[in-house]
Each structure stands twice: as C-alpha cells, then as structure tokens.
Amino acid sequence: MELPGTDTSSCQGETQPVKSHLLQSRDILVESLYNLAPLLDRALASGLLSQENYFDVRAEKTPQERARRLLEVVHAELDESGARGFLECLKSCQQHYPRLKTWLGSDTERQLKAQLSVLCSRVGYSILPVSLALFSSGILTQFELDQVQATPTMYQQTNQLLSICLSKGEKACCSFYQALNSEDPQLASDIREDPGASGPAEDLSALSLVSTAPSTVEAVQDTGETDAEDKLVSGNNPLSGVLQQVLALLDVCPGAGPSLNVCELGVAVGLPRRTVRESLLEEAGVGDVSQLRALTTLFLHKTQDAGRLLARVRECSTDRVLLSGRGGLLLKLLLEAEALFYTDTNLCTGHTLQDGDHQRDQDPKDRALLIFSYLLWEITAEALEDCGPGAEPGGDVKAAVRLLKGSACVQAELLQELEECLTEGGTESLLQSIRVLAQVLRDLFPLQDSWRLSPPADGAVYSCHPHRLHRVTSFLGLASRITRRALCPGSLLETASLPSQYREVCLGIARLLDRVQPQGGATDLSQAPTSTIIQHIHSILSLPAFRPQAFDAGARHRILAVLEFDPVLLGLRLLLDLHRDTLMALGQYLKPCEQHSFQLVPETVQILGGAVLSWVGRVRGPVAIDNGMEEVLRFVTSEPTSFLVRVFCRGYDEGKYFEVHEPRCVRVSGLGEEEAQALGGTGLAREGNTVWMREGWQGQETKLEEVLERHSAQAHEEGCYFKVTSSGSECEVKVICKSGRLSAVAERNCEVV
Length: 753
Description:
Layout: H1 18-24, H2 26-32, H3 37-45, H4 51-59, H5 63-77, H6 80-92, H7 101-104, H8 107-114, H9 116-122, H10 127-136, H11 142-150, H12 154-168, H13 170-183, H14 185-193, H15 200-206, H16 241-249, H17 262-268, H18 273-283, H19 288-303, H20 306-315, H21 325-343, H22 364-383, H23 397-404, H24 412-424, H25 427-444, E1 450-453, E2 461-466, H26 480-486, H27 498-516, H28 530-541, H29 553-564, H30 567-570, H31 573-589, E3 598-608, E4 613-625, E5 628-637, E6 642-653, E7 656-660, E8 665-669, H32 673-678, E9 682-687, E10 690-694, H33 701-710, E11 714-726, E12 730-738, E13 741-748, E14 750-752
Antiparallel strand pairs: 1-2, 1-4, 2-3, 3-6, 4-5, 5-12, 6-7, 6-11, 8-10, 8-11, 9-10, 11-14, 12-13
C-alpha cells in the first residue's frame, strides 16, 4: 500500500513502513486531529484499540494531548499490520480532518487537484457526457448530477463536478479520468503526456485574481468559451489564482465540509468585522470555499494587494479560526436543510413558521424546518446562561430567536435578521436565514476558547464578549473510573440498525445521569425499549442535582434535544452523529475539572498607544495549584504596545458562589502626576490627564475627595486592572486567584504591573 504524503518513486518500488511514516508525521497529525471521536470509534470497532486504550486517550484534557496519546498507543502497541489498519481507519473518516486531506490523498487526487483549472478551461462540452457516465457508474447521485447541471456555465459545471470527485476520494477521481478518456481521448492524452503543464504554479499565475496593471482588480479573460472568470469580483468565480493559494495555506479542500469561521479570518487579516460579515451574508454560501472566495474578493477589492492578503493568512494561527467538531457537524446538518429546501418544489408558495410547527413529517420542506428547530435548540443551549422552560424543545422557533436576544454571545444584528427572515417565510427569506444561521453557528462553536472584541470605544477600549458561554456551577465532577464503567463502549460503535444505535445513545446517557444522583433502587434498563429509557431520563433531569446552579444548563438542554429529536422518525442520520457527540461530551463533562466551578473573565482591554488589539484567548487553565487558581491568557496586537486589562473571577467554593474584583483600581481624570502620587497606591498608567492607580488610597477617602475637589478632578472606581507591556505582537499573561485577590505575572513576551 502506498502511503499518503510520501514519494515512493525514489525507493525502487519499496514503500516506507507505516509506523515510521506516522512517527515522522507526528507534528501534522497532532495539529490536525482536533476531533478524535470519529477516529477512536472506528479504531475501537476494528479491534485496533482496547477499551482501556480508548478511555486513556479520551481522558486527556486537550485535543493535542489526546492526539499525542493516541499516536503513542499506535507506536507502542501496534505492529506494522496494525499500523496499516489504523491508517485505513484514518482514511475512512478523513472527512472529519480537512487539514489532512493532502496528507491522506492519493497520487490521483493530487494530480486532479493540480489540473483543476486547466480541466475547467478545456473540458467544455464534454462535461455533460462525462457527468452522465459518472452518474451511470454510481459515482454521482441524482442530487449531485442536478447540482452540476444547474450551474450556468461549462467552466463552473466542470469545477462543480471536480469538487465532488475530490470530496469522494481516489475511486471517484480515477472514474473521472476514465470517463474523460472515453469522451475526449485527445484531452486525456494531453494531460498524460504533459501533466506538469497544468501544475499549481502555472495555474496560479494564469488565473490570478489581480491584474498586472496597477490599481485594478479584474477577472482575467482566459478564453471566449465561458464568462465564469468575469464573475470573480462578484464572488461567483471558480477556484483560481489567489483563492487557490488561500485554500492551500488553510488546508481547505472542496467538499470537505465546513471547518472555518471565515468572518474571524477576515478580522484576523485586518478587515472590520461588520464589513466582512455583510459580505459573507450577501455573497457567500455556507461552505468554506464559497466564504473564502467572498473574503478574498472583498480584500482584493479594498486593497488591490494579493501579497498582503497571503502574508496575513500565512501569519494567522489556524486554531483561531477553526470550528469545533460539533460546529462542523451542525453546519453539515444546515447544508442538508438547504438541500431539502432546493428539492422541495412547493417552497415557492412560502411557508411561514407557526407556533408548535414541529411535526415529524417526511416532506422535504417540513424536515428542513425541523432541522431549523434543532439548530435553534443547539444555539439556545450554547448561548443562554439559564435554558429555562421557555426554551424547551418543540417550541415556536421564532420565540426561540426572541429568547436569544438576551444573550451576549450572539450578535443582535444577526438575530434581528434571522427573526425577520423566519417571519416572512418565503423562499428567498428562508434561504437567507440559512446564511444567517451558519454565521451564528460559526460564532458559537470555535475550536479554541476566545473572546469576541467589540469595536474600540473612547479611542482604544475593547470590550470582551465570550464566543463560548461558560457556566459556573457547584458541580465537582465524578471520578473517571465511575463514568468509564457507566459508559459502555458498545454504545459508540456503528451497528447495522439506526434505531438500535439511537437506543444505545439514550441508554448511555441514562447510565451516566444515574451516577450523578442515584435514585433509590437501581433501575435495569439493559432490555428496556427506547421509550422507557427516554422516560427515565426525563425523570432524572427533574431532580435537584440538575438545577442550573448545580449542573451545566447547556448540557441538560442538549440531553433533552436528544430525547425530542429522534433521528429514526425524522430520517436524519446526521442527527445520530450529533447525539453521539452529546453522549461523549456528557461523559467528558462529568469528569472532575476546575472549569466546573471557576471562571476568569476579561472584561475590557485598553490600548495605550496606537496599536490595534486583534485577539484575546485562553491558552491554559484554569488549574488549581498552591491553594489558588491559575489561568493563562494570550493577547494579539498589531505591534508591541502597552495596555490595561480589566478582569474578575467568579465561581463556587464549597457550594457558595463568589466573585473576586480585588485589588481594585481607580481612574482619576484632571489630576497632576505629583498630586496623584501623593494619594499613595501603585500608579499603573497615565494617558493625557488620566491616571490609573491601584489601591493604597483606601482609608484616605476624605483626603481623596479634598484633592479631587481642589483640582476639579474626577475619580471612578473601576475594578481590577493589570498593566501589560508586550515585546512582540503576541504575549501571554498568567492570572492567579488566591485568598480572595487577583494577581498577574508575565508568562511570555511581556512585563506585567
């Protein structure tokens, strides 16, 4: 077997041992395997991992640590044959790992990707018979064939067909070349004789989005055969030029499924969030490629500087813009709703969502609307601090949108547009609501925990809003061995029957919940029907142990969604994947973790100088150590600078809620430096006639009032501040909560006061 990502031509036909290849590729694998659940399930089902291996890997805290642990198991416990089996498992679920697409790809796939632009230009009228041949051989479905034929030009039809083939792997790519050889032997011969002529380097120069003429952005007129290139600036162009390079830098492959928050990428490359968001909602679909096309076009239209865009994409950490595994699954489900809307010919009559519109019907339109209900339920679970009875599954979806308006995690403008689209209910409005929902999902399900920054107020004050809601509770967690015994690995495996898989997921949830608050007398559900298990779960969730102060309301909310949205009745297999993810997430949540009962909250960041703050995120922690809690934050700015960060922490200690804002600071305006120093305390920073001081003035309130009155100055108490002076564009600060006070120390590239 030829290994992905290796060149065997120089080895006289011998291939590199799989275990050695995996070891040499450790860095890219650790970086790319950020959602291990599908791979672990496959490896366990294949007998390559033991149950002990499975739970050892799942017990690691971060995606990188889990990936390292899995590779250690493969290297230490599998022979060469086992390693080959592991690689086959990885290839079988490669759709979950878009960044490994190139590494896992065959020579045929790499060749087709390299020849993409030339084939789009030259296939021409052969596209119809080639597509029909692939449909006849079972490579294309009827829906995919319709997608190809629905695009307006032959160039775009070829691009659509090749994207589908690349998403399906080596067999589909080989079938395309066979069909092309039968229909156009001359073109097939040209490609075989001179494959390098259509390589990436030539394509990028030939199809660049940017003209060589100064100060212009225009489509290159390649041939008179198609007008597709004329539509580059509008966002309807095929993959080409600068866009191809952006895709390569981000390891994005057509058809791999959504995995990026492109709006966040737009902010990272320097564009205003609102401008990027409006462009994506106006011009882009749900998929990554469509959104990246819109972003590339927008940046080039604004700057006419392709090199600047590529340099900034190269500098951007992909972890900042990657979605979590669940986020990717939810967007795939949204794409399924979009496909259902397009296949329903009656949609043009309009369908306004009504109260209780939650019927289990196999009509495509109704199934699409049920997907909307489920997605709004997911958004509610992620965005509302307390998911109360008003957000129970099965409620009016418009009411759910209105309920979300109280959340700081979802942008108000998106919710307003979503509500308007759902109220209007016509074809265009419902399709537009899909774009809005896609952006809401992307914002709520990042891979890396970070904060959304509001536009700076008063010159340089950024407010921090969480992308991912963090609920603190008094829940302490259960020992891993307890959850391991409760969570039967069999419930995670793929079996022949969809109903039995759904039942096993519900049974796994019931067993885990029973460990949180056991009821009198053990209930044996091993032979019970699904309906009995669901009733048992409802009963457990009504107990005091699952109130919002004691248990994460979002986790409880998702469990209820598993019970309400039956993938068997709805005919949606992708729902089962999401329910299985809910089960695994519940098992992970129940383990002891400092995050259950502690949260560090950055409130604002004030830049002192002309730099721009672009990102704030959690790097590590919280960690309980030395009778306190520690957490490391990362700040990314446009250049080295100084800034003030205001923070507080909250949580539960022995069941009692607390908040810590000490040591407090005061902001004084209109006071000279000498007068400010005379008040005592620690001077943090001065900007103009404003000075920030930490404590020292307590007990001297009378003196402070006299000084302020004498100098016509004003003072405002503002919570806990720390001053950070960075030595680079990125710095890290460790914040410590101990004995009812906060302190901070430099972790990397900075000094802290």
